[in-house]
Amino acid sequence: MLITDAAVREAALTIAQHLTNADPATGTWAIDPEAPADGVAHLLHDDGRGLSFRPVFGGTTAQIWITGGPAPSLPADATPAERNAHKAHTAPRLAAGHRYNRPVTLLTEDDDNDPADLILSTVEIDLLPAFTLKPLYVGHRPWDDLFDEVLNEAKANDETDDEPTPAPAPEVAVDVVDTSETSTAPGDDPTLTASDPQPSPETDPADEPQEPWAEETTTDSAVAIDAPARPRSAARATVPPQE
């Protein structure tokens, strides 16, 4: 549906009323009374931000742009920590007087679409977020990146909470063996059993049979070593002849 110069002001009133009712705590939007009547709608917020749109290409497209307002003021007696926090808060904002624009096509398959609704949808989705997170280049949508980070963090937390708690290990019954000693009859030695070997009587080394001396041979030579001669016994001693 086309939008004419005469319908621009009516659409501006509808958009200003809708934006104010959507978030009345942040202030109100209204038509800028000082704006020239040049066929362009100029809306102004209480905090100094601006919103404008105008029909182009014979009313088939609306060119929309926003203008940054002044950053929130900081008390003169602010501490260094408060100043740093304020600087971090205002750095991503669209600076005062800077603009960000986006076109929207008003020709759709449904001829009953109101141009004001199409302009309002583009303002809410593509332009209002740029007031607090300014795009750095054409096509940059930093608010989408922030939304994805928050969504991924929420999914990670949900997955952690959904993990089942492992069941405790089942108790295992252990049979206890009675290891207490049994009583023994008088005279029985409990330390000896049928399987214990009996101590063998000690023998006198002198009673053991003596091995005769024999020749020894080495494994690495054929030299025989003579054993020393055994002494003659007293019974076999030679008696000298008597005269």
Keywords:
single chain; 243 residues; alpha+beta; 4 helices; 7 strands
Give, in spatial order, the strands making up the sheet with the most strands: 1-2-3-4-5
Helix content: 25-40%
Mean pLDDT: 74
Counting helices, strands and paired strands, the structural category is: alpha+beta
Reported for the largest beta sheet, the result is: 5 strands, antiparallel
Q: State the assembly state of the protein chains.
A: single chain
Strand fraction equals 5-15%
Head-to-tail CA distance between termini: 174 Å
Shape: extended
Q: What sequence of helices (H) and strands (E) makes up the elements?
A: HEEEEHEHHEE
Please mark out the parts with pLDDT under 50 across 5 or more consecutive residues, or reply none: 182-186, 190-195, 212-227, 233-238
Total count of helical runs of at least 4 residues: 4
Verbal overview:
The protein has 243 residues and is α+β, with helices and mostly antiparallel strands. Helix content is 26%, strand content 14%. It is built from four helices and seven strands. The protein has a five-stranded antiparallel sheet, covered by helices on one side. Strand 6 and strand 7 form a beta hairpin. The protein is extended.
Question: What's the arrangement of secondary structure elements?
Answer:
Blueprint lengths: L4 H18 L6 E3 L9 E5 L4 E7 L4 E7 L12 H11 L8 E7 L9 H13 L14 H21 L53 E2 L6 E2 L18
Antiparallel strand pairs: 1-2, 2-3, 3-4, 4-5, 6-7
Helix pairs in contact: 1-3
